[in-house]
Design goal:
With about 160 residues, this protein is an alpha+beta fold. The protein is built from 2 helices and 9 strands, in the order H-H-E-E-E-E-E-E-E-E-E. This is Ig-like domain-containing protein.
Length: about 160
């Protein structure tokens, strides 16, 4: 069989399609694979320079050791309370937020704070009576010169039929 011009063109087109198909598949498979190495950190998990390692892995950093439940449903007109216990050296400061804005005590919302020993602080907010406006995301933030730790609490109300 003598190759003619049409057979050669068809063979070239088929070859181009095969090459293009292999290239496309290879590109997609690369996108799906995940790198097993963390970028910017050595495999040991320690920071490259000792000052950063000492700062970020400091055992004296603020740590929240006890906090209220994440998702809380309250009854309108009743009291709700959130608790946050943190430790660190120096003793952490606890700040409360609702929907991203810092909250302070007022007529229906009270912030209580107790110092336990030289490195622990306990803080509690109480809202009494709770209204629809009290639904949202509350956040407890503990911080000292070494670190910041946060816990969030989502609240929503229910209506009790007595």
């Amino acid at each position: 069989m003598k190759p003619n011009k049409n057979n050669i063109i068809m063979l070239m087109l088929l070859l181009l399609l095969l090459i293009n198909d292999v290239h496309c598949r290879r590109g997609r498979s690369r996108g799906r694979s995940k790198s097993r190495m963390q970028i910017g950190l050595p495999i040991t998990g320690k920071y490259r320079d000792p000052e950063s390692d000492q700062y970020y892995n400091n055992n004296d950093g603020a740590k929240i050791t006890l906090a209220s439940h994440f998702d809380f449903e309250y009854v309108l007109g009743h009291k709700i309370a959130f608790l946050c216990l943190a430790r660190g050296n120096p003793r952490p400061t606890i700040t409360w937020y609702k929907d991203g804005a810092e909250i302070f005590s007022h007529l229906y919302l009270h912030v209580h704070q107790w110092y336990i020993g030289k490195d622990t602080v306990k803080s509690k907010i109480e809202i009494d009576p709770a209204t629809q406006m009290d639904a949202g995301i509350y956040e407890c933030t503990a911080d000292n010169q070494y670190s910041v730790d946060r816990r969030s609490f989502k609240t929503d109300f229910s209506i009790a039929f007595d």
